[in-house]
Design brief:
The protein is of the alpha/beta class and about 425 residues long. It has helices at about 40-55, 70-75, 90-100, 105-120, 135-165, 170-175, 180-190, 190-195, 200-210, 215-225, 235-270, 275-280, 290-295, 305-315, 335-350, 355-365, 370-390, 400-410, 410-415; strands at about 10-15, 20-25, 35-40, 60-65, 80-85, 320-325, 325-330. It contains 19 helices and 7 strands. It has a 5-stranded mixed β-sheet with strand order 3-2-1-4-5. Helix 5 runs antiparallel to helix 11. The longest helix is centred in the middle third of the chain and has 38 residues, at about 235-270. The radius of gyration is 28 Å and the shape is globular.
Length: about 425
């Protein structure tokens, strides 16, 4: 058993359900097993936890719960005597198949399997300890912001498709659809006939009020509006499309406002975090990506012992499968998607700001790799650098890394010409 595993007075498997949770508890000293249920109420959960505290005198108790049950983990992490072991749902499913070949499944049996996992195989699972409040706040703000951006993208795609069907001129007249200008324009003039009724003075004032200061562009748009011809005059298409555009624009306006609010909160929270200078130092890590990198790594320096752990946990490291003569490497799918996206998207941005990152990306493309495969290879290298800076609490310095490349002289760096090959 790993030396960092705490001594436990009891092992608990807790299977979450909509109405009540199934519990399987094994006493470490006697081996006695208790099965019970908890109602899906905060009061019931708190009462159960306090009962455990009293029964075992505040000794450490290990609780295994499926990793996907975030709300339950958030409720349990408030108690210092509970040691949490989040279990990947896929790991539980495979374990269930190994001990129950019939495929039978219910909540009490899953609770027993969760308990058995940490009782028999605890050395394979690392206890999970909550990060600082400041770090968790940044993690949640970053993820929620990304969810809102995804919603915004879905609405702008829908809006673009609608406009192409009856009012394509609007796409040139408003520019980016995910802006306040576009929302206000389409709310005021949701069809070409309504737009062509507007006076030139009204249009000039609208553009000026929304930050468009170039007179020649405004006049060009006014002339385009005057000469525009409708794509269709079918009232069924126009009427229903206008209703849908107005509904979508209202949703989009709310999302734009919400994203801006989240970004303001994120800027404040990130600026107050003790690690903000470290993550700001990475090339291309601006006001969005720097907090996401912090969210991916956290502030607990004992969480990861090696860079390989981060590469595997994030899903950037590929999976190798071998069996006899069979040997192939594939992308890793079982990982936190948001963290994988964070490293992938930031690595793509770093190409514009880092000399060696751009060279390494081109080297990978030259080997025949596709764009995303080359970005993953770059992210794999970046994680080693990020891990070192994070572990040592030192900001990134491009010149220091270039000097290191000069000493090690990897083939790709020599080929790219960013270092000199010594004869």
């Amino acid at each position: 058993m790993n030396s960092d595993q705490p001594e436990l007075a009891a092992f608990v498997g807790l299977d979450w359900a909509d109405e009540e949770h199934a519990v399987c508890l094994r006493v470490a000293e006697t081996g006695k097993v208790h099965v019970s249920k908890i109602k899906q109420k905060p009061e019931s959960l708190r009462e159960w936890v306090e009962g455990l505290r009293n029964e075992f005198g505040g000794q450490k108790i290990g609780i295994a719960v499926e990793k996907s049950r975030g709300g339950l983990i958030h409720a349990l992490m408030e108690y210092e005597f509970l040691i949490l072991y989040p279990i990947n749902p896929k790991a539980l499913a495979k374990y269930r198949e190994s001990v129950c070949v019939s495929g039978a499944k219910d909540d009490p049996s899953d609770a027993a399997l969760l308990m058995d996992l940490i009782y028999c195989h605890r050395d394979r699972f690392r206890p999970w300890y909550p990060d600082t409040v400041a770090t968790r706040k940044i993690q949640m703000l970053s993820e929620y912001r990304r969810d809102l951006v995804n919603d915004q993208t879905a609405r702008t795609n829908r809006l673009e498709a609608l406009l192409k069907g009856y009012y394509p001129q609007a796409l040139n007249l408003v520019g980016d659809l995910n802006t306040v200008l576009a929302c206000n324009f389409l709310s005021r003039w949701p069809s070409l006939p309504s737009l062509q009724k507007a006076k030139p003075a009204q249009l000039r004032k609208f553009y000026l009020d929304h930050g468009c200061r170039r007179a020649e562009i405004i006049e060009q748009r006014i002339e385009e509006i005057r000469k525009a011809q409708p794509l269709t005059e079918d009232d069924a298409v126009i009427h229903t499309s206008v209703l849908m555009v107005q509904s979508t624009v209202n949703e989009l306006h709310v999302l734009i406002t919400a994203i801006k609010q989240f970004e303001q909160e994120l800027e404040i929270a990130f600026g107050q975090h003790p690690d903000h200078e470290l993550f700001e130092s990475f090339p291309g890590a601006g006001p969005v990506m720097a907090p996401r990198l912090l969210a991916a790594m956290g502030s607990d320096r004992t969480r990861f012992e090696t860079a390989v752990e981060v590469q595997q946990f994030s899903g950037i490291a590929p999976v190798t499968r071998k069996s006899g003569r069979m040997h192939y490497v594939q992308r890793r799918y079982a990982c936190p998607r948001f963290i994988r996206q964070s490293f992938h998207e930031w690595s793509r941005l770093s190409i514009r700001f880092s000399v060696w990152a751009a060279a390494y990306y081109e080297y990978q493309r030259g080997k025949g790799k596709g764009h995303h495969a080359a970005i993953r290879a770059l992210a794999f290298k970046w994680i080693r650098i990020v891990f070192h800076c994070w572990k040592e609490r030192v900001p990134y310095n491009e010149q220091i890394y270039l000097d290191a490349l000069q000493r090690s002289k990897p083939a790709w760096a020599v080929q790219a010409g960013i270092i000199k090959k010594v004869a």
